[in-house]
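Quick illustration, no need to memorize.
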Amino acid sequence: MGRLQRCARFAVGGLALAGLVLLACARAQPTPALSPTPLPSPQATPLPAVTPSPTPLAVATPTSLPTPTPTVFLGGGALTPVAVVTPSTAALPDGEPPPNRRGGVLRGTWSGTLRHFDMHQVGELGTWNAVNLIYNPLFEWSALDRKQETIAPELAEAWEVSPDGTRYTFKLRQGVQFHDGTPVTVDDVVFSLNRVYGRNLPPGTVSARAEWFADMVDKVEALGPDRVVVTLRFPSANFMTLMAEGWHVIVPKHVVEKQGDLKTVAVGTGPFVFKSFVPNQSFEVTRNPNYWRQGLPYLDGVVLYNITDQTTVLGALLTKRLDMANPAGQNIEPRTAEELRRRNVPGMVVEENPRLGVYSILIQTTKKPLDDIRVRQAINEALNREEYQKFAKAIKFKIGGAVFPGSVWDLPQAEWEQLPGYGPNYEARLARAKQLLADAGLPGGGLTLEMTGSAGPACDDAQEAMRTMLARIGITVKPACTPTTDARVREEEGRFDLHYQGYGISSIDPAGVIGTHMVCGGGRNFSRMCSPRIDELYRQQISVLDLQERAKVVRELVKEVTRFSGMNIIGWYVEFFAKWGYVKNHIVTPSRYTAAAKLEWVWLDK
C-alpha cells in the first residue's frame, strides 16, 4: 500500500447518508422587565488527585505490516481508497484569531444532569456539555462540517478496512499524552474500546452504548505499539458512523484501574484540562498546554454555570455576564429567542438550527394494563402531534418518528398515515382508540396514569397536552413532573406510567434512536420495549451493505417500532442559540455529540 495519508475524504450523498465522508486533519482546523439573578461564584472542590502509574505494554511487534491508506467500506462489496484533502483554517467560519485575540475564558451555561464524569457509563446531556471538553475519541463527527457528513480522525490518524469489511485497523497518533503526563498507549486504546463495547466490565460498571456493538464486534487487539484492530463478526453498514459519535473516548487504563471508574476523575487527552466542579453550580476547565493539535485551543479556558431558569439566562446574556448560553446544545427556549429578537440588541446573535434529538412520550410497557399493545396504541392514536405544537411553548419541533425526517430512512407520508398516531383523520383515530381500549377490556377507558418528567415549562406543557388529549378516550393523566435528577432516576428505573423527555441523538443512523431506545436491553430503552420482530429487523439492517436495500429493511423496522407504541416520538428538535457576536467559530452541527462541542476553535474577539 502507499504511504499513510493524514487527510482523507470520500464522497457522500447529503444527510441521506448515501455514503460517508472521512476527513483527516493534520492541523485543525411583551415580556416583563428582567431582574437578573447573580451568577454563582464558584468555590470549587477539586476532584481527587491522580497519581500516574502507567501500565507497560506487553505486545509483540510484527515483523511486517503495510502502512495503511485510509479506506472505507461503501457497501456492495467494494472498498474504495479515499482521496486526499488538506483542510486549512480557512474552513473555519471566522478563521484563526489574530495574536492579540488568543486567550480569554468563555463563559457559558450547561443544563441537564451531571451526576458523574464517566462518559462510557452515561448518556446524559449534562455530562456531555461539560466533560467532553476533556477527552478525544479515535475519530469523531467533524466540527468543520455543519451537515454532519464528515468523520475526522483524532487519536487515530488513519485506518484501513479489510477486503471483506470485517477487520478495521487503526493507526494511532504518536506523542499524545494524557493530562497527567503519561503517554497514550495501544493498551489504553484496547482497554477503552473494550469498555465501550461492554467487555470484561467489573461489577457496578455499565456501558451506555454496548448494545450498539454487542452482536457486531468480535474482538479488539493490539497490533504492535501503534495499531489497534477491531474485528467484526460480519460486515457492518454502520460501524464507523456509530463509532464516530463523541462518547467513545479514550481513557487512561491506569487511572481506571486505580480509581475503579471515572465517575469522580477526568483525565483525558482533550483541548481542556479539568479544573473544578461545584455540583449544580459550575464546571471549569483550563487550556491544555500539551494538546496534540498544535496551537489549539484558542481559549485559555471555559467556565459553565448550571443555570436553567430562562429569565436568569436572558438577564446574564444581556448584561454580558455570559458570552453565550449553553455552547454544546439545549441552548435557549423559543420564547427566550423571541424576546432577544424583539429587543434587537446590537451585537447579539440568535440562530435557529435543526438538531438530532427527539421529544417523546414514553409508555412503561411492562406495567399492566400498558403491557397490552392495544392500550399503548390507543394512547398513541389520541396523541395529536399537530395539536401538541399549540401546547408546546418551551420547545419547537418538526413532527416525525423513529428516523430523522427527510432522511433516506424516512417513510413516504402515505405510509406514515397508515400507522398509529399519524393518520390524517383525528376523529377516526379517536374512534379507533376507544375501540382498542374496549377490546383490551377497558370500555370507556377508566384509567388514571401518572406522567413524570423533568420539572420545567416543557414538562408542564407536555402534561397539559396529554391531559387534554387522553381525556377524550377516558384516560386521566396525573401530573408528576419532578426535579431533573429525580426524574432521571425514575426514568432509568422504569418507575412511571407515562414519561415526557427529550433525548439528544448522536447519529442520523437508525441506531441513534432505534438501537439505543427501542431494542431489547437498549442502553436508554426506558420504556422497556422488547419485541423479537424489532430485534430481528434491527440485526438484519445492520448487515445489509447496499444503502437502498438497507433502507427498505429500516422502513419496515420503523413501522414495527411505531406500531409497538412504547416510545412515542412527538417530533425532532429545532433549537435556538444565543451568543454575543464576539464569540467566533462556534459551530452548530446536527448532532450535539460532535467535535464542535469541544470548543477548541472558538475564540473571543474582544
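The domain at 355-574 is CATH 3.10.105.10 (Dipeptide-binding Protein; domain 3).
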